[in-house]
Amino acid sequence: MTNTEFELGGLCHLALVCQDMQRTVEFYTEVLGMRLAKTVEIPDGGQHFFFDMGGGQFLAFFWFRDAPERAPGVASASALPGVGDIRTAHASMNHVAFKIPADRFEEYKAKLEAKGVVTGPVLNHDDSERGVSMEMNEGTYVRSMYFFDPDGILLEFAAWTRELNEDDVRHPAVDRFGVVPAARPR
């Protein structure tokens, strides 16, 4: 399936806000191994830095001198998935998932932990009633491990375990009240 409206080539960049740009640079370059690709000084005293995630895609951070403090449980997740509540407010960014090779999943988890990064339990997202299991099964479509960056941004290493197909789209969308709206006439 392709986009018939716009020729999109994937994600250009996702822009987040950090509290300490130096600490952010250290984490994303030294812990996650990304290359700092571009730095911008904003005229009002802020900064905007871009990290190369690979595949022509970037993760960007703003630093604003007088930015409001973080608000876990409102603008960011307050816990790791599988550990606690991950709900966030409307229009918030819940997490950033980085695609990793399935055959390096355990190695990458061990690498993060060796660098002092606390990771949550491995979650095998599947087609079960719960939607997740601790063990791989025939319904597993992606394996995930979650962790926080120094600013409390929820990050995920995700490994697809199978290709998605039309059978994977089987739930009707609900409205803002959690109700499936009646079919609308065309």
TrEMBL record:
Pfam families: Glyoxalase. Residues 10-160 form the VOC domain. Gene3D superfamilies: 2,3-Dihydroxybiphenyl 1,2-Dioxygenase, domain 1. PROSITE patterns: VOC. InterPro entries: Glyas_Bleomycin-R_OHBP_Dase, Glyas_Fos-R_dOase_dom, GlyoxalaseI/FosfomycinResist, VOC_core. It comes from the Bacteria. This is VOC family protein. The lineage of its organism: Bacteria, Bacillati, Actinomycetota, Actinomycetes, Kitasatosporales.
